[in-house]
Design brief:
alpha/beta; Rossmann fold; Dehydroquinate synthase-like, alpha domain; 2 domains; 6-stranded parallel sheet; two-stranded antiparallel sheet; globular; binds zinc ion
């Protein structure tokens, strides 16, 4: 049987987990395969989702050339919102429905890939978007079946959306982030070409790398799958099924790669080895969290990102914004200090994999060791010092807590109960770290 971490907690808890394996092609130049891959999927009429900034990148010519050489009939949608909303998902869905496409290609960051997933879904099974959106925001109805083939090409080393069944958007009426989560949303193929990482600003590498780090640590420390109630029907096991032996494999290797390459990839844009390895770490952490689910830092990040007023980070479009990976990082040390007592050995192991010296540490020190190591990385790559550094004051904490409450999918994947007063305590602890 599995290690003690995965002993079934009680009668009625799940004794199995499902591995949703992604088809991934990784390596320099693989974007040039895209046309032939679309043909192999029997796609003739292809929707291409991207944005104007990405279309201007030198390597995008490989995509265009490959699609043309394969003789595909393409139409481009490049009006993807930087932070997708229910309205921008619906715009994209109208484009998809009108185009009668046989397949989809997304070339971009998480916003582009997620918009493509939602558009493909609604064009395949036309209905109101909210039908499939997670409760309590939407009706959380299951996606009825497979959607059209989708080839996803990530252009940042972060979100992992190319290998997950999640599509995230802001629900404008509630000012809350929400998601559609279904194995049917997972792209048919991911084409990961690390050349795209070479042209990213250091601030983007820093924020998206913190996202990778948190995908790995959160999946590793999520509630074990064996502590979740059996789904009804049993095959409706959620994507956020909790930590499991498969997700552990990706988490451990992603953390080891982060320890070796993350800071190097940020500080030296010419360090092609480090930037390539970060792309691989992002893929592995994406596969892990696509099979386990993240928890409290991501739930808090949606409130931190959603309530921003004036903070404008370097390296991003000039608008008030806390990039997703930065928002997750600002919550992470406070959360890991809090969750350490649920599984001290796991927190200690994560700290050691990330490069902390854990030789003489006791399990009682595991939360402090992991949080301390995450803070060291944050300082080395220029992450702001807590939520106060991106404009939040103590008086904002009640509204931040209210912003987390809709994230029930994520809070339910935490290794311990998270109440509103827990969240208030965590935001207090996240105000400053050094
Ligand atoms: Zn994330």
């Amino acid at each position: 049987m599995w290690c003690r971490h995965y002993e079934t907690a009680a009668a009625g808890c799940d004794a199995g987990f499902t591995v949703d394996a992604s088809r991934v092609t990784f390596g320099r130049g693989v974007l040039a395969e895209v046309g032939e891959r679309a043909r192999a999927l029997r796609i003739q009429r292809l929707a291409v989702f991207t944005d104007a900034r990405i279309r201007a990148q030198p390597w995008f010519a490989d995509v265009t050339r490959s699609l043309r050489a394969a003789g595909l009939d393409t139409a481009v949608f490049d009006a993807v919102a930087v932070e997708p909303t229910d309205a921008s998902f619906e715009d994209a869905a109208r484009f998809a429905a009108a185009g009668r496409f046989e397949g989809y290609l997304s070339v971009g960051g998480g916003s582009v890939m997620d918009t493509c997933k939602a558009a493909n879904l609604i064009a395949t099974y036309p209905t109101a978007l909210r039908t499939y959106v997670n409760a309590p925001v939407g009706d959380a109805r299951p996606v009825p079946g497979p959607i059209a083939p989708h080839i996803a090409c990530p252009t940042t080393s972060g979100t992992g959306s190319e290998v997950t069944g999640f599509a995230i958007c802001s629900w404008s009426a509630l000012h809350a982030k929400t998601a559609i989560a279904s194995p049917h949303l997972r792209p048919t193929e991911a084409l990961v070409d690390p050349r795209v990482a070479m042209t990213q600003p250091r601030e983007v590498v820093a924020a998206s790398g913190m996202d990778v780090l948190c995908h790995a640590v959160e999946s590793y420390t999520a509630r074990p799958f064996s502590h979740r109630s059996v789904a009804t029907p049993v095959i409706a096991r959620p994507l956020s099924q909790g930590a499991n032996p498969w997700s552990d494999v990706g988490c451990r290797e992603a953390l080891r790669l982060l320890a070796a390459y993350f800071v190097r990839a940020v500080v030296d844009a010419d360090d092609t080895e480090a930037r390539e390895q970060m792309m691989w770490a992002a893929t592995l952490a994406g596969i892990a969290f696509g099979n386990a689910g993240v928890h409290v830092p991501h739930a808090m990040a949606y409130a931190i990102g959603g309530g921003v007023r004036t903070f404008r980070p370097a390296g991003y479009p000039d608008a008030p914004l806390v990039p997703h990976g930065m928002a997750v990082a600002l919550a992470a040390p406070a959360v890991f200090r809090h969750t350490a007592s649920t599984a001290p050995a796991r927190h200690l192991e994560a700290a050691a994999l990330l490069g902390a010296d854990a030789r003489d540490a006791t399990t009682a020190e595991s939360g402090e060791l992991l949080a301390g190591r995450v803070i060291e990385v944050m300082r080395a790559i220029g992450t702001p010092n807590g939520i106060s550094a991106v404009g939040y004051e103590a008086t904002d904490i009640p509204s931040l807590v209210d912003g987390v409450v809709p994230q029930q999918r994520l809070l339910g994947n935490a290794p311990c109960e998270i109440t509103k007063s827990t969240l208030a305590h965590l935001f207090e602890r996240a105000q400053r770290y050094w």
